[in-house]
Write a structure and sequence with these properties.
Distance between the termini: 42 Å
Organism: Metallumcola ferriviriculae
Radius of gyration: 19 Å
Number of strands: 0
Structural class: mainly alpha
InterPro entries: SpoIIM, SpoIIM-like
Keywords: Membrane, Transmembrane, Transmembrane helix
Protein name: Stage II sporulation protein M
Strand content: under 5%
Mean pLDDT: 85
């Protein structure tokens, strides 16, 4: 509860950055959803056939959950490490924005396509196999991006006049990212162990 309160205070103190990052992510989601219309009919058909093939073959899956978990967790951690590093560079602020936008676009495209092409089955797929890990990953991503941009802005504005203050802030910044990496690791485990099980369940009925 204390950690949650501190995060709330931190976000409030960086409200402008918070609004900017959320706006960029929302713009990514909208762009991804609208991007479906830019696909040709053949591209949409090919993608739909791929989804159908995955669903139809899911019952015979022999999922290497441990291997999938390692890949998903490490992928998430590498992304957080990149965002952490970009926060130290000052010039990385636009790159953080691009990362957030692209993750939003991928999510928007995935959800939009499933719902548009698979109707009720697409809604179920979204709720049971896309949202679980993203309900964990997305807030962590946004917090990481906000922290990265806020730290860069502090450096850019020269607010660290003493080495001790900078070292303390850097320590807090790094500890926060340690927590974030723990959270996204949990998201990776959900993606590896829970989402495939839900896909198998849905495929039985559709």
């Amino acid at each position: 509860m204390k950690l949650k309160s501190r995060i709330g205070q931190y976000l409030q103190a960086n409200l402008a950055v918070f609004i900017l990052i959320v706006f960029i992510f929302a713009a990514g989601i909208i762009s991804g959803a609208l991007g479906i219309n830019s696909l040709s009919q053949q591209q949409q058909l090919d993608l739909l056939n791929y989804v159908d093939t995955v669903l139809q073959g899911s019952g015979d899956w022999q999922v290497d959950s441990l291997g999938l978990a390692k890949t998903a967790v490490w992928s998430n951690i590498k992304l957080m490490l990149l965002i952490w590093f970009l926060g130290l560079t000052v010039v990385g602020i636009p790159v953080v924005g691009v990362v957030v936008f692209l993750r939003g676009a991928v999510l928007g495209f995935t959800v939009g396509f499933l719902v548009q092409e698979k109707a009720f089955a697409g809604v179920l797929l979204t709720i049971l196999s896309v949202l679980p890990q993203n309900l964990i990953f997305v807030p962590a991503l946004l917090l990481a991006a906000i922290s990265s941009v806020a730290f860069s802005l502090q450096l850019l504005q020269g607010k660290f006049s003493r080495g001790l203050v900078l070292s303390q802030y850097l320590l807090g910044y790094t500890v926060l990212f340690g927590v974030v990496m723990g959270v996204v690791s949990l998201g990776g485990l959900v993606e590896a162990y829970i989402s495939p099980a839900f896909i198998k369940l849905i495929a039985v009925y559709f």
